[in-house]
Amino acid sequence: MEASALGATNQGVKSRGRVDAIECVWNPEAFDVHGLKTFREAYPVGRNIVIAPHVKTAYERQVGNLKVEFVPIENLRAAAAH
Known about the structure:
The protein is of the alpha/beta class. The chain has one domain (3-81). It is built from 3 helices and 5 strands. The protein has helices spanning 10-16, 34-42, 76-81; strands spanning 3-5, 21-24, 48-52, 59-63, 66-72. The protein has a 5-stranded mixed β-sheet with strand order 1-2-3-5-4. Strand 4 and strand 5 form a beta hairpin. The chain starts with a strand and ends with a helix.
């Protein structure tokens, strides 16, 4: 994992029922899903968002058993608000 913002509080999990994971990477093609899989063991429900400066148009990709959204850095606010 390059830099990540994978965080959650117990209160957030209880009140929303899900925890979204947002990870920032330089190269989306070299994305390593290991950290995200570990996070999802503790918090199984939520969106998986990868932000990268080299992504020009948002797209989804199945990585192992996880659906991951790859989003341009300019769309971070909109992606997180969904």
